[in-house]
Design brief:
heterodimer; A: 147 residues; alpha+beta; Alpha-Beta Plaits; 2 domains; 4-stranded antiparallel beta sheet; 5 helices; B: 174 residues
Chain lengths: 147, 174
C-alpha cells in the first residue's frame, strides 16, 4: 500500500459518482486515469485491504431488519458453533470477543420474520441460547477510517 | 422510514450487493445484467442514495488491513433517560464508528449503549475508552470493553443466499 492507495481509501469511502464513467470522474481528482484507479482498487481488494467496493445498503430502509446476537459458547465447541452460525447467509458479521459472551454476530435479512427464524434455527442447531439484542436507537456518525 | 422497492430495485440490489464491477462503465454493466437502460439504472441508484436505502457508494476498507488491529465494542450502562444524551456525547467524540442503544440482558448484562472503537495499538484503544468514559461523566454507571480476538465472518448484506461462502476465520491480531 503506497501513498496513492492511501489517498484512494481516504477519498473514496463514499461519494463514488453515479455517472456514465464514474472511475474516470473519481480518478481526475486523484491525478489518475480511470484504468489506474480500477487497477488499484482491484489490487487492494485482492490483497484484502478493501473488503468491498460498491454501494452499502441499509436494510432498515426497505423493511429489512438486523440484530446483534450474543452467545456464550463453550471453548471446546467454539469452532463447531462458529461453522454452524456462519453457514447462514443472513449472518453478516461474526466476531469472537474476550468475554463470557464470546460470540457476537449480526443477522441481517429482508424481514423480521426471517431474522427471527434464523435465531431459532441457530438455537436449535447449536443447543445454545442466542441473546437477541436489536438496536432500539441508532446514533448516526459516518466515521471514515484514515489509511 | 421504509421505502417500498419494486422488482427492478431488488434486482439492482442483488446485482450489486457484492460490489460494483471494476470496469470503466460499471453502471452500464449492471444495467445490462438487470435488463434496463443505463440512465434508468443510474436514476434508481440516485433515488436509493437520496432516500437512504444506499448509505454510500465507495470503498470499504478492512480496518485490520489498515492496521486498526484493536476493535473494541464498548458497552455502557446508562439510565434510560440519559441514553439520548449519552449517545450524542459518544458520537461527538469523532472516533466512534457505530453507536446503538440495545436492550439489557438483566441481571448479568446491564449495558444498553454500544459504541465501536478502533485503534492501531492497545494503548490507544484504552485511551479512547478513557476519553469516552470522561465524555459520559456521571451518566456512566458502568462499562466494559469487548475486544475482538478473531473475525469469524464478514460479508455485506445479502438479499439472497446464493453463492455465499464465508471466508476462513482470520486472527484479529497477527
Amino acid at each position: 500500500m503506497d501513498d496513492m492507495d492511501r489517498a484512494i481509501v481516504n477519498a473514496l469511502q463514499g461519494g463514488f459518482p453515479v455517472s456514465e464513467t464514474p472511475f474516470a470522474d473519481a480518478a481526475k481528482a486523484l491525478g489518475l486515469t480511470a484504468e489506474q484507479l480500477i487497477t488499484r482498487i482491484r489490487v487492494m481488494k485482492e490483497q484484502g485491504v478493501l473488503s468491498r467496493f460498491g454501494p452499502m445498503y441499509n436494510a432498515d430502509r426497505f423493511g429489512g431488519h438486523n440484530t446483534l446476537v450474543a452467545m456464550e459458547v463453550p471453548a471446546d465447541r467454539f469452532d463447531e458453533v462458529a461453522e454452524i452460525v456462519n453457514s447462514f447467509p443472513e449472518v453478516a458479521h461474526n466476531y469472537q470477543r474476550d468475554h463470557r459472551l464470546n460470540m457476537w454476530f449480526v443477522i441481517a435479512a429482508e424481514s423480521r420474520e426471517r431474522v427471527a427464524r434464523v435465531l431459532t434455527e441457530v438455537q436449535d442447531r447449536t443447543g445454545l441460547v442466542a441473546h437477541d439484542l436489536p438496536k432500539l436507537t441508532e446514533f448516526h456518525i459516518g466515521l471514515k477510517f484514515e489509511a | 422510514m421504509t421505502h417500498i422497492l419494486d422488482d427492478t430495485d431488488r434486482a439492482i440490489i442483488v446485482a450489486t450487493q457484492d460490489g460494483l464491477p471494476l470496469v470503466e462503465r460499471p453502471y452500464d454493466a449492471v444495467a445490462q445484467q438487470v435488463g434496463i437502460d443505463a440512465a434508468e439504472l443510474r436514476r434508481r441508484v440516485q433515488v436509493m442514495l437520496e432516500n437512504g436505502v444506499i448509505r454510500r457508494i465507495g470503498v470499504v476498507p478492512n480496518h485490520y488491513a489498515l492496521g486498526y488491529a484493536w476493535n473494541g465494542m464498548t458497552v455502557w450502562d446508562v439510565a434510560d433517560h440519559d441514553v439520548a444524551a449519552a449517545g450524542a456525547a459518544l458520537c461527538s467524540l469523532g472516533f466512534v464508528s457505530h453507536c446503538y442503544e440495545r436492550p439489557r440482558l438483566l441481571p448479568d448484562w446491564p449495558f444498553n449503549l454500544f459504541a465501536m472503537i478502533h485503534a492501531r495499538r492497545k494503548d490507544d484503544a484504552d485511551d479512547l475508552v478513557a476519553r469516552a468514559a470522561q465524555a459520559l461523566g456521571g451518566m456512566n454507571r458502568g462499562h466494559r470493553v469487548l475486544y475482538s480476538t478473531r473475525i469469524l465472518k464478514k460479508t455485506g448484506l445479502r438479499l439472497k443466499g446464493d453463492g455465499d461462502v464465508p471466508p476462513k476465520p482470520v486472527p484479529a491480531r497477527a
